[in-house]
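Friendly challenge for the regulars: who can give me the structure tokens for this chain first? No prize, just bragging rights.
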Amino acid sequence: MNTLAKYAWAILPILLLVALVGVFLAYGPLGLLKTAFPPIESVSFERVTLEQDVILLEIINDGPDPVTISQVLINDAYNQFEIDHQTVSHLEGAKIRMNYPWAEGMPLKITLLTADGLTFDKDIAVATESPKFGITQLLTFTTLGIYVGVMPVFLGLLWLPFLKTLNKKWYDFFLSLTIGLLVFLSADAIEGAIDLSKEVAVSFQGAMIIPIGFLLSLLLLMAFGETGSDIDVTKTGITKHPLRLSYLIALGIGIHNLGEGLAIGSAYAIGEIALGSLLVIGFMIHNLTEGIAIVAPIAKENENRINHLLLLGLLAGGPTIIGTWIGGFIFSNLWSVFFLSIGAGAIVYVVLEVFKHMKRENAGSIYTFTNIFGFFMGLLIMYATGLFVA
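First reply, four minutes later:
Bragging rights claimed.
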């Protein structure tokens, strides 16, 4: 078979499938269904922006049929509105502007009514003016990220001198505790991704973004780990173990904290964080224990690793700041699901690396009562501190 024939046979099934779909759309049962049943309509709210006496909506039609927006209700009362195009096609977006004297701190219920009589609702728990990009708001989100992510991680790193005083048995205990902390963080990221996926437009298949992001980060890190296994690390000063392990833990936590920052920034942008400062305090307590996970692998090293603590802390806590910027100014449910899934996959890779490190350092079994207790202590600590966030 020559080259031309080979590629012709490769393309032929695709061309025939395209033709088959065309015939189905023109003559198949789809036409009968459309005449027998009303159109299938679905509208997803992408973003709500509150300005003084103005409400701006960004919507997307994630249903198969065009949608015509005929009325907008605010708190169950009809309201005048402007829309850039009233009939919105499949996966097309539209922007709606309404003049409305909303009150600071009061709830809002926005309802879109289509020409076919279907309604789609968006609830805002606490109305507050949406942040606009500027120095003041940038500093506000940066400060939030520092308080929530950076400072708690650095405070947690201060446990290093204490961990250095422990014997081998309790050193393994804290490595097991580290695994428990990381497993909880990974599960927490997956749970957040699942919750947010419900807010993603149906056509974008938010739930399927989760395994894509999870496996992408997990497999890429595995590939990089294999590639870098033979690198001469003496030039960088980062030995393969255990300092490399601390950096991996900081990286995994940092990616997780990026997703955490997204949640905080978006909550602040729509007023939910105004419900109380306990949310910020809860995240601070929750993140304090992450410092233990980062420094536990280097606790028994003879070398002085103080010069690495700044980089480790920034790697783990710094992404929280970036997350608050993205969440506050350009939040997207779809990308948030993706980032959270990536964080979960990265943390699972780190868990596997810590587990392999423990196996390598222990001639006997690592499944001791002390280690099992440490693992569940890590889970319980994150659960208990997570109560402040919930």
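The chain has two domains: 43-124, 135-389. DSSP finds twelve helices and nine strands in the chain. Your move, everyone else.
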